[in-house]
Specification:
Length: 232
């Protein structure tokens, strides 16, 4: 497996992921986005499926080189995010089977055109992927109550955690989806959830759905723009 990991935290997470046979590569650093999100994978990459990633124009060559010897196809979106919100979230969308959840008025056309308009659901909050742990496209964890309502409305099981649990440089708080990744029945978190009630809620949910919860570090959980893990 291959993981794209926030360049700023690559040295911290690389060896931890290798213990699970996941080879990590540092993320592309955007020349457009500013601050911590410039190196967040989910601001330049959209995971369409296990064999397809859609990349921003500026990151396309970088990711093509990483995945050139694999089965994974990198599609050039031929557009880039803008510096400021909401234009910065063009790639920060979430696929749920045949449905797409995104901020429709700014989502990349390369993503939107791959979904039936009737199955594209608008989110008023643009950081959709950041806000959701996608557990095999079957179960979900989120810290956004409106996204949970959408998820549950599509017939999926989910739990809601409190906002503000996740640390991030340059911002007041990060998002739970941005601090996580999923592969082979394992939910990976960048660090520990110090709030006991939320930690217990997540651990109980993981046991209920027969998934293993992995804390990669002993630090307070921190946002890296998603651990984007792909089967190679």
């Amino acid at each position: 497996m291959i993981a794209i990991v926030d360049k700023a935290y690559y040295d911290i997470l690389r060896d931890k992921l290798s213990e699970f046979n996941i080879k990590a590569f540092p993320s592309f650093e955007s020349k457009i986005l500013k601050g911590a999100v410039a190196t967040h994978p989910d601001m330049s990459l959209f995971k369409y499926d296990e064999e397809t990633l859609i990349a921003s124009r500026e990151s396309f060559e970088y990711y093509s080189e990483i995945f050139k010897a694999t089965k994974i196809k990198i599609i050039n979106a031929n557009e880039d995010p803008f510096e400021n919100y909401p234009g910065d979230v063009k790639f920060n969308a979430l696929r749920m089977g045949t449905h797409l959840i995104c901020k429709k008025d700014v989502c990349s056309d390369a993503i939107m055109t791959r979904f039936n308009p009737d199955k594209t659901i608008n989110s008023s909050q643009g950081y959709v992927k950041c806000s959701v742990i996608d557990i095999g496209s079957e179960y979900f964890v989120t810290d956004d109550k409106y996204l949970q309502k959408i998820i549950n409305g599509l017939g999926h099981k989910s739990i809601l955690l409190d906002k503000g649990l996740v640390k991030i440089k340059d911002y007041d708080y990060g998002f739970i989806g941005g601090a996580s990744g999923y592969a082979r029945d394992k939910i990976f978190l960048t660090g520990l959830i110090k709030d006991e009630a939320n930690r217990i809620r997540l651990e109980e949910f993981a046991r209920e759905i027969n998934k293993e919860l992995i804390y990669l570090t002993e630090y307070d959980i921190f946002d890296v723009g998603t651990l984007m893990i792909m089967e190679d």
